[in-house]
Each structure stands twice: as C-alpha cells, then as structure tokens.
Amino acid sequence: MTLAITIGVLTAGAVYLILQRGMVRVVLGFVLLSHGVNLLLMSAGGAFRRGEPLLGRDTGAAMADPLPQAFVLTAIVIAFSITIYMLALAATGESDDTEDAS
C-alpha cells in the first residue's frame, strides 16, 4: 500500500510540475515521473514476495523475475539522457530574452 501511495504522489507531483511554465520545473517533473515509473516497474516484477532472481537456490517458481529489473535499469539510463538533454535545452533557451527588440 505504501508503494502505491508513493507512486501516486510522485506521479501527481510530476504532472503538476510538467504543467508549469518554467523549463527547469518541467525537467524536474520528468525526473519525478521517471522515478514513479521505475517504482511501478519494480512493483510489477513481484520482487517483494519472492527471493533473489539469480542467486537463490530455490526452485524457479520462488525466484523473482529479472526482466522488470532489466527494464528499470534501461529506464534509468533513458531518463538520465533525457534529463541531460532537457537541461541543455533549458540552459540555451533562456538567453533569448536578453536581446533588444528594436
């Protein structure tokens, strides 16, 4: 239950920040959204009700599925690259308001 509430709070905060006007707030919203999605993917794997995915000596039914963990690792790399790209856009896009219109 705590995990579901945490995912909901992160998603709600992300939606609020993405709808703001500033680019840095939008970037922070995407970071929060990526954390929420990572938690959702990990909870879908059922790691809390099973043993270790590869190190345990149990039967195959008792081991956790390693596929959601691989998805989370991939999502972390993608979210990091998108964050860096959006921060670069935010840094270069703020210089337009200093030019003189006349």
From TrEMBL:
Which residues span the membrane?
24-49, 70-92
Q: Which UniProt keywords apply?
A: Cell membrane, Membrane, Transmembrane, Transmembrane helix
The record, for Pfam families, names: Oxidored_q2 (PF00420)
**Where does the protein end up?**
Cell membrane
Going by the entry's taxonomy, the superkingdom of the source organism is recorded as: Bacteria
| Gene Ontology cellular-component terms listed | plasma membrane
Membrane topology reported for the UniProt record: Multi-pass membrane protein
User: For this UniProt entry, what is the primary localization, expressed as one broad class?
Assistant: membrane
Family to which this protein belongs: Belongs to the CPA3 antiporters (TC 2.A.63) subunit C family.
- Could you tell me what this protein is called? NADH-ubiquinone oxidoreductase chain 4L
Supply the source organism for this entry: Nocardiopsis dassonvillei (strain ATCC 23218 / DSM 43111 / CIP 107115 / JCM 7437 / KCTC 9190 / NBRC 14626 / NCTC 10488 / NRRL B-5397 / IMRU 509) (Actinomadura dassonvillei)
